[in-house]
Amino acid sequence: MTGRRRPLREIAVSFGEDAERYDRTRPGYPAALADVVLENRGGTGAPDVLDVGIGTGSAASLFRDAGCEVTGVEPDERMAALARRAGFPVESRPFDHRYPARQRYDVVVSGQAWHWVKQRAGAVTAAQVLRPGGRLAVFWNICLPEPPVAAALAEVYRGVDLGLDVLPWERSPLAGYEKLAGAAVAGIWGSRAFGTVRRHDIPWLVEFTRDAWVDQVPTLAWHERLSPRALSRVLDGNAKVIDALGGTVTMPYTTLTLLADRRPD
Fold this sequence. Notes:
With 265 residues, the chain is of the alpha/beta class. It has ten helices and seven strands. It has one domain: Rossmann fold. The protein is elongated. Pfam families: Methyltransf_11.
């Protein structure tokens, strides 16, 4: 497999090419995430939350259900349109190019998107839009199939060129997300605007039918570069894996969460 690099901005907005599918098929976030992010936050009243990379509004919906007032920023207008349809005000622009907002927020969150932001610049901007003592929370969902399931999925991709240096599912994706988390911690620390970064790993389970699993496969990173023929082969292979498991699969997930509170002025 070859490594064909693309600019981060280009990759970040590639998910909007099929925003409806992304909205329909991605599993969302565990209810416990809102509890972890909002715990011991301080303040009174409904927290004002800014969702960086709001996408179609999946994480935003979780925090709205927890009683927060949520505003979004999203570089992909196609994704932003769906979040607006779900009732969220959204500004269409990259976050790390964003001027400090006139409004200050209690919490800045970013789900499955912070790695598309320039790390130190994003942390500096987060500090600028947060009230003193406000909280930055960045998090990622990590699908961790059981080893036999992962091995069967990896076999589907053998010989399929996704432009990657590794075979999907051959290794645990956790290591890759550890690198993203490490870069996030370095950026937050480098901003000099936040206190200690705390990590929480939230385990949960998602059950997929064969059709639901196959439906979300094209939304996974790098699949958009496949030819129609190659994608059809990949989807058929994924379907056969789930069929061999009886038509459904329960996937273990971990939501890797980093929290840091803004220093007082």
